[in-house]
Amino acid sequence: MQYGSPPAAPVEAKVKAATVGAGAGVAVAELATWALDNYLITPGVVGDLPAPVSVAVPLLIASGLAWWAGYRARHTPR
Fold first, then answer.
1. Is residue 5 included in any domain, yes or no?
2. Residue 56 has what pLDDT?
């Protein structure tokens, strides 16, 4: 009779890479949103970035970086 739970399967390398990419994407997206607000959209006026832009930019950058990191990672050998 076996006690306890079965051993956990190893996490795929692509999943690990995409997770790190998502975290990095959030950091990059915050910097991009800050730069858009302070330097491109309305220079000199802080906090005047339109709401759709402040939502779309982080969403697109974070998901894009997560996808790219997962795509570029090697497959886990089985």
1. no
2. 94
Which has the higher per-residue pLDDT, 23 or 3?
23
Judge residue 16's burial from the number of C-beta atoms within 10 Å of its C-beta, 0-12 exposed, 13-18 middle, 19 or more buried. Answer: middle
In a domain, 78, yes or no: no
Where does residue 41 rank: exposed (0-12), middle (13-18), buried (19+ CB within 10 A)?
A: middle
Question: Can you give the pTM of this predicted structure?
Answer: 0.77
DSSP letters, 40-77, are: IISTT-TT---HHHHHHHHHHHHHHHHHHHHHHSPPPP
Residue 6 counted as domain residue: no
| Number of domains the chain contains | 1
